[in-house]
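Thread: Newbie trying to understand structure tokens

Hi all, I'm a second-year student working on a class project, and my supervisor (Dr. K.) asked me to get a predicted structure for one chain before our next meeting. I've only ever worked with sequences, so writing a 3D structure as a token string is new to me. If someone could post the tokens and maybe explain what I'm looking at, I'd be very grateful. Here's the chain:
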Amino acid sequence: MHDIALYDTTMRDGAAREGVSFTIEDKLKILKHLDAFGIHYVEGGYPASNPKDQQFFDAAVKLELENAKLVAFGSTRRALVSASRDKEMRALVRSGAKTVCIFGKAWDFHVETALKISLDENLFMIEESVKYLKKKDLEVIFDAEHFFDAYRENPNYALQTIEAAAGAGVDWVVLCDTNGGVLSHEVAGIVKEVRERVSIPLGIHAHNDCECAVANTLMAVREGVTMVQGSINGYGERCGNANLCSVIPDLVLKMNIDCVSRENLAGLTELSHFVSEVANLTPDSHQPYVGYSAFTHKGGIHASGVREEGRTYEHVRPEIVGNIQRVVVSELSGKSTITMKAKEMDIDLSDSPHALAEILNKVKDLEHVGYQFEAADGSFEILIRKEVGSYRQFFQLESFRVISEKREDGKVATEATVKIHVGGNRIIATAEGNGPVNALDRALRIAIGRIFPALSDIELTDYKVRVLDEKKGTAAVTRVLIETSDGEKSWGTIGVSENIIEASWEALVDSIEFGLMHKKQQPHG
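---
Reply by user tm_fold:
Sure, no problem. This is what the structure looks like when written as tokens:
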């Protein structure tokens, strides 16, 4: 197969996603990560559109990139204005980038309806823009906007736009499915026909509005395009762009195209999560290859299979893309799942069939009433340790009380009191909080914090509540999931009750005891 140039548009097209906004510093960080990963072209932004993008280029061109070419993005010159006098053309040159990508209309419908100019003028705009930029010794990429829609309606004119760019000396022509509505068999047929008509190197830029962006990209590669454009995690306007976190491993692992090294491919999951963090978006846990659940096994038969050999239920080894295999516990679990999870805790159940059966039955009984251990690894470990006798109780509850008071000034005050026994000592502590769970957490920490100093490292990071049987209204069973971290690792715990405070207390106690258990902390005092 031919070589493929990877072109990333996360910082321009990806930033068009609703809710995403990158600072200059964000973009510089992303650029460095993409360069280190081995991306060949990185589109930095639209220097004519806003001062922030121009400031980014001022800083970015000073970086010493090892793999990536920095790309400035813009459009062809405006109608009836020479390229040398067009502000956008001049901004592209002024950006300092040695590669520029300009888009132009390939669809006669757009030319006449949106631009309201003649078809010939549009061709002149493409030709003269490319010539102007080539005279500035720049590498020029032409994005033929709406090309596939254009080709379906007027193939001759769509080809003329490409030929205008090619005749002016363009380096690449990229065929764009701008509306994201073309299917893969259409992409294959059109790319094949275009390849027969033009000799210029071609690329593909696919949007994901009918969930075909990755498939369309791969199909275009199969038919001969040599540049693929997309974004990390598929970020982009509307439904997004082709997801490079799927396209790249598909190219390398499925099509044997070494567009990045196998060593760099192992950093794909980290790159995906880094960009999610910078974009302030929660990573999609079910995203192929890089998602937290991409190599997670829940069903008992699946877990049993991967225990023997990952290939039974995994299409690639997770470590190849920097991910890990996980087995979660649920009502679908079998004995193999329980054994594997216990082994992760350094507990060997292979010679304890009775304990294994008891744990499995207890899991199924608890999940029947609303527990969900696949999201509560901390509570599950405590359950196993209680069954095998290796559980250590750090404190014993005598009682807790929570009082909420709405005052005349409109403020709501919550106070919690806990009575705890630790090592034969009875401790009473009271604290206020911004809600019942926060107040309980504070009171418990006051009660045992001096005895267990490691508690200061343990913090609640997330709290979720779900009503399991809504038809019962306020009498419904409630599931509470708490996420906790000690700064090095995170764990989940769960509580279920008709009383939301009781469910919260259960999850809270598990979260703290799990953290203390792994700190191997002995009580002081």
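A couple of things are worth pointing out once you decode it. The two ends are 70 Å apart (CA to CA). The CA atoms of residues 39 and 438 lie 46 Å apart. Feel free to ask follow-ups in this thread.
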